Amino acid sequence: MGYKNICLECRTSYSKGNDYKNHTESNCPQCGKKMILVNHKFKPPKKSETKSWEMVKLLVENGFKFQVVYEQIEKGVYLKVNYPKNLSEAKEFIKKYKP
Questions:
Q1: Which end of the chain is more exposed for a tag (fewer CB within 10 A), N or C?
Q2: C-alpha to C-alpha distances, 15 to 3, 55, 64, 66, 90, nearest whole angstrom
Q3: Which residues pair with 80 in a beta bridge?
Q4: pTM: predicted TM-score of the whole model, two decimal places
Q5: What is the rounded CA–CA span in Å between residue 98 and residue 3?
Q6: Could you tell me if 81 and 46 are in contact, meaning their C-beta atoms sit under 8 angstroms apart?
């Protein structure tokens, strides 16, 4: 486990260890573009799953880096929200949970 750096261009991910504060930005070893640090909970899709990577890109661009998201269901009670599974769900997810 640990944080991951992802390249949305190459559709790859690299493990970065557990200490988020000691990570610096890095570039993709394949294309040289800046990589994005995401939470260890991120499960990268297969490189060939283009639609899934489009969803990942949309979420990341809107500030969701696979950190835990909670929804308040009543005063003092929060429920963990599952991340979307496809692009249309991702659009609704962003509308609902983007601060």
A1: C
A2: 6, 20, 18, 14, 24
A3: 70
A4: 0.86
A5: 22
A6: no
Per-residue pLDDT of 28-83, as tens digits, reads 999 999 999 998 889 999 999 999 999 999 999 999 999 999 999 999 999 999 99
Q: Return d(Cα 95, Cα 34) in angstroms, integer.
A: 27
SS3 state at 31: coil
Nearest residue to 16 via CA among 37, 32, 30, 31: 37
Length of the chain: 99
Distance (Å) of CA 10 to CA 28, 46, 65, 83: 8, 11, 17, 22
Amino acid at 50: T
